[in-house]
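For the sake of transparency, this paper describes our internal protein records without simplification. The tokens are whole numbers drawn from a learned vocabulary of local backbone shapes. One such record is reproduced below, unchanged from the form in which we store it.

. . .
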Amino acid sequence: MKIHEEKRAPNPRRVRVFLAEKGIDVEYQQVNILDSEHKSAEFTRLNPLQKVPVLELDDGTIICETVAICRYFEELHPDPALMGTTTIERARIEMFQRQVEFSLFQPIAHCFRHLHPAMEKLEVPQVAEWGKANGERALAGMSWLDDQLKARQFVAGDTYTIADITALIAIDFRKVARIEMPDELTHLKDWHERVSGRPSSQA
């Protein structure tokens, strides 16, 4: 099997960190988005939506979408559990995972795509007003997450999960999107320092 990815992009990094936490080694094939390789006929056959990452299994089965790929590996390698072990754990982790995606990850991505000069040829049209609006949404999302982390060590509870991975990649990517983290978000800063110290964060 192999994963088609653009290593510089945030969604593929979510998969790499997830697999690193589980100690899973997979072959990676790079797709240069800035050179429009994701729009090639070869890649489009793998994913008609022309997005990375894409997991290609040995039998030719294709699995797209970040969380779907993570779910596949979670089912094959349930330990350590990054998506929960009980019904309530799975539900809560999924809840926080989605909230982080909508409140933080996506606004940061939209800010980057609509304001960064490097994305001018890929995000057509770039809408600066939308980028700026999402910068404000990202700040609100960081404030929300800081408040959540007052009561617990990790995003979804007492253990590190896929929700922490999504939040970690989002917070790291805000630097590329040129979004500053307010100094008063001390709980978020402490959490970010802890999770950044995990070996998987270097994946």
Notes: Residues 87-202 form a domain with the Glutathione S-transferase Yfyf (Class Pi); Chain A, domain 2 fold (CATH 1.20.1050.10). The helical segments are 10-22, 41-46, 66-76, 87-115, 128-148, 162-176, 186-196.
